Amino acid sequence: MDLGLARVQALLRRVGSPHTRFPVIHVAGTNGKGSTTACLDALLTHGAGLRAARYNSPHLVTARDSLRVGSGDPIDTHTWDAAVQRTRHADNVDPHDPAAPPICATPFELLTVQALLAVTMLPLASQPDVLIIEVGVGGRLDATNVFPPENVLASVICPISHDHETLLGAHLGAIAREKAGIIKEQGLCIVSDQCTHPPSTAARAAAQEIAHSLQDAVDRMHARAAVATIPWGAMEQHAAEGDTLQRLSVRVSFAQPLHATGSSVDPACAQTDTHISLASSATLGRLTGCTTALQTLWSIAHDRSPYTDAPLVSACQHVRDRIRTRLFLEGNHAHINAALAHQRWEGRAEWHWLVRNGVRVPLLLDGAHNGASARALRQYLGQCLAACRGNVHITWIMAMSRGKDASSMLDTLLAPYHGAVAAQQLAVVPFSTPVEGMPWVAPVPPSELAALALDGPWTLDGPVRAFPALADALDWAASKETQALHLVVVCGSLYLVSDYYRM
């Protein structure tokens, strides 16, 4: 992976600078980026009545899935294919200087330019009012970090943890500095609560290290910053009551931006809290995503940018006004919850049925692929098991990418569940390669992952099974006979989630 901005900026110029055409909400972080963007999309589209386009990576099934428009559906094939063709041609030939050499953009740079170009090729009436852009890796040198400061309504920093250390640095402070590279000069920045839950001494120290780097970036860029506070206590009470799979209702409080040079708050929109209701799968990730998205939109609605003569000043103000009047005037709680009901983020605490030969087994699909997301999955699963009030037989099916801390993830997920689990079995598989647009991605070979699992301190019932493909492992899992409630959990990689959806 070759991070840098020179190639993508050159390619954008060759295709007409589509990155300058729309207001943008730019989202970075290690965990929760996708959930936050999905909540932003639902709130903007179904709550504020705006047309939004959302760019996420990695894609779910095909590269076209990375760009969602309208109500969250992938962009149409005709427009996408035209954008792909034009982008690839421009990568090889400069339309303004045929003698110029090829740019040789990376696959992710090509994908990013294709997405930005595609939204400009939609009919005018279908073009978005606002773009929601998820960072690929890091932030400072990511291919998405190309937007003019005056176009960025908010830069959002989701929870940060260890991931991609070879590219971003070994320490959380260094990783946070790379993520904070998306903060714009005199821009608005929203920082999600960085303390993991439940908090510990180590977690608080990590949060302080992250906060120090983020504060340095905010000060250096003279930015306006607000923290999205996560109401963790509501989740604890929810779990204690055994209602993990039921609706969770919490009050979210909003923070005024600090270092607000050149900005002010409209007193007519001074509401400082709201109720949100999360139906089913009330996970830490979904709670984080919803509260971060709401704080982001509340701050945008109350913000007054110093860029008063920018080309998109009217378009940006239109977005702020719609968010303010549709979502945050007094009495709009029900409107917010109706919008959040449309939020869906595939492969995160997602329930399915595994059906084979008339047998139906509940299946939990989750793209947990690093230490923090594995801990979140374990906490959610632990709450689900407690709600079952009985022994459960778990069959794990896992794949992991090269470079991930597989041992730590196995230790997190397979550790004892305090009597709620009657037995655990593990199957390991590869995910399909090559991953479209990401040729560097490769799975840990199943034999290697199985050997690692067998060396661990956890207790498994029976040998670790290695299968050549996900379908084989699912067939094996469905054939298991058990007197206890049987649950299949598919996790370890977003690319494995993609394989599940392709079946």
Automatic annotation (TrEMBL):
N-terminal signal peptide: none
Keyword Aminoacyl-tRNA synthetase: no
GO cellular component: cytosol; mitochondrion
A GO molecular-function annotation: tetrahydrofolylpolyglutamate synthase activity
InterPro entries, per the entry: Folylpolyglutamate_synth, Mur-like_cat_sf, Mur_ligase_C_dom_sf
Record's keyword terms, sorted: ATP-binding, Ligase, Magnesium, Metal-binding, Nucleotide-binding
PANTHER family listed in its UniProt record: DIHYDROFOLATE SYNTHETASE-RELATED, FOLYLPOLYGLUTAMATE SYNTHASE-RELATED
Family, as annotated: Belongs to the folylpolyglutamate synthase family.
Name of the molecule in the record: Fol3p
Organism: Malassezia vespertilionis
Gene that specifies this protein: FOL3
